[in-house]
Amino acid sequence: GRVVLDGRSGSFELTPSEQLLYDRRSGEGRIVRVGDAMCYSIWKDDVILFRDTPLGEVLETLSRWYDVHFEMTQLPPQPISYTFTTDNTLLDNVLHEMELISPVRFERSRSEIRVSFR
Asked: Does pTM surpass 0.90?
């Protein structure tokens, strides 16, 4: 299959395993080939998948998916990356799973989730 997207700067034709990186402000886009397309489409089956994904990127993704704000007041003592898959899509359960496999702690308040390290 293929998909054609029309933007301000022209048309973009995507084939399987391709992704469009599009800048709304400038209207410019570029097509990139993704290594594992399943990682980008598995969300539709209510499955969360990260493969060797840095903590910051995981938090950005969760922030976007769950419309929450993460507050990290300190940097981790060492780089943290995640590789896990879960079909448990409740945010509290995902955060609990992350706490079990890494030295990260999450504390929820009304407006944000504080991130600390053990």
From this structure: no
